[in-house]
């Protein structure tokens, strides 16, 4: 099974997640608690006691299936949920479909939750077969998509896959309301500019503030002395000159900002003044003691991670989001 069919292209849009290679432990803002098995494509709803027990042992992948096996008959503890054709097909419009087109990235940000975009795996790209199968499934079941997110890694490294997506949408006549993309915007050809503008892709650019703080946090993998800030600024200007518009800027707020006495308002005001963009999204880097084997192994340090105990609850936004349903592309 391909990496990207295992990762699933739909995510549950919630606030707190912990994950390993094979399991996602999720608590919603409404207090519902779930365990999602990546391999089995199945979700278990948990009671509070079991959730807290698994939260402490999320790093022990051998323990998780044993807990499920012992408790899945106990309805007071687990409610078994499987996204079969019968219940999934009652959904005729997906609010958001996130396509992880590649886990490859040209940057190595110091706080990256995805280990430089790779999620702990070797760099791969979504195959033509998976893309074709997904949109054929949506078409055959008359499912439209309100927001189609082109995601990575760095999605602009996957232009071949993006073209496959557009071709499949046209081939199977799948209804898409709008296209979204989160990109570091450090790699951008003239052809890609024309493509993004013609397809009316809503662009969110990742940038962490002024040149000093941004270049300390967001570095190239293979040329650490080159400024990512300068490249992003140049590409934003190129994109606008060609007639494109930047939807928003997404910033990651770290303890490095605090050490340099840079507040969230400082980041917001700087970006608004420098780029004349009003929609600024700020995400905190929080060490929630996730104890996963995918990321944070070498990155848990005082330079990046904020103390979640001293943050307002509204600031506890999870970087890695899941959508309200899960779709298996078998």
Q: Count of DSSP E strands?
A: 11
- What is the overall silhouette? globular
Strand residues, percent: 15-25%
Radius of gyration: 20 Å
Number of helices, counting only DSSP H or I runs of 4 residues or more? 11
Structural class: alpha/beta
Low-confidence stretches: 1-20, 83-88, 288-302, 308-330
Mean pLDDT over all positions? 75
The span between the termini is 8 Å
Biggest pleated-sheet summary: 6 strands, parallel
Major β-sheet strand ordering: 6-7-8-9-10-11
The ordered H/E elements are HEEEEHHEHEHEHEHEHHEHHE
Assign a percent range to the helix content. 25-40%
Quick recap of the structure?
The chain is α/β, with parallel strands linked by helices and 330 residues long.
Describe this structure in words.
With 330 residues, the chain is an alpha/beta fold. It has eleven helices and eleven strands. It has helices at 3-7, 48-56, 63-71, 85-88, 128-140, 159-172, 190-198, 211-217, 228-241, 255-259, 264-275, and strands at 16-19, 23-27, 33-37, 42-46, 78-82, 93-100, 144-151, 176-183, 201-206, 246-253, 280-284. The strands form two sheets. A six-stranded parallel beta sheet has the order 6-7-8-9-10-11. The longest helix has 14 residues, at 159-172. The chain is globular. Residues 1-20, 83-88, 288-302 and 308-330 have low confidence and may be disordered.
């Amino acid at each position: 099974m391909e990496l990207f069919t295992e990762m699933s292209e739909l995510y549950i849009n919630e606030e707190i997640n912990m994950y390993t290679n094979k399991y996602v432990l999720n608590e919603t803002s409404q207090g519902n608690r779930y365990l999602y098995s990546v391999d089995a494509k199945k979700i278990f709803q948990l009671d509070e006691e079991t959730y807290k027990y698994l939260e402490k042992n999320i790093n022990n992948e051998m323990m998780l299936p044993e807990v499920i096996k012992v408790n899945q008959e106990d309805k007071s503890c687990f409610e078994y949920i499987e996204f079969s054709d019968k219940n999934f097909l009652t959904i005729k419009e997906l609010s958001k479909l996130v396509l992880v087109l590649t886990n490859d990235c040209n940057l190595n940000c110091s706080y990256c939750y995805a280990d430089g975009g790779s999620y702990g795996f070797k760099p791969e790209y979504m195959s033509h077969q998976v893309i074709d199968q997904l949109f054929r499934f949506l078409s055959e079941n008359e499912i439209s998509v309100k927001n189609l997110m082109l995601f990575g890694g760095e999605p602009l490294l996957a232009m071949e896959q993006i073209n496959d997506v557009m071709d499949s949408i046209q081939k199977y006549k799948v209804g898409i309301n709008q296209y979204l993309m989160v990109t570091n915007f450090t790699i951008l050809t003239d052809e890609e500019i024309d493509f993004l503008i013609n397809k009316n892709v809503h662009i969110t650019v990742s940038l962490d503030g002024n040149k000093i703080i941004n270049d300390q946090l967001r570095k190239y993998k293979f040329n650490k002395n080159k400024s990512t800030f300068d490249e992003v600024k140049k590409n934003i200007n190129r994109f606008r000159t060609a007639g494109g518009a930047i939807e928003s800027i997404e910033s990651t707020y770290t303890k490095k900002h605090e050490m340099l006495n840079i507040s969230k308002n400082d980041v917001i005001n700087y970006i608004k003044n420098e780029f004349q963009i009003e929609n600024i999204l700020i995400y905190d880097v929080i060490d929630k003691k996730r104890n996963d084997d995918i990321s944070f192994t070498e990155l848990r340090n005082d330079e990046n991670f904020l103390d979640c105990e001293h943050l307002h609850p509204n600031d506890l936004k999870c970087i890695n989001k899941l959508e309200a349903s899960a779709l298996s592309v078998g």
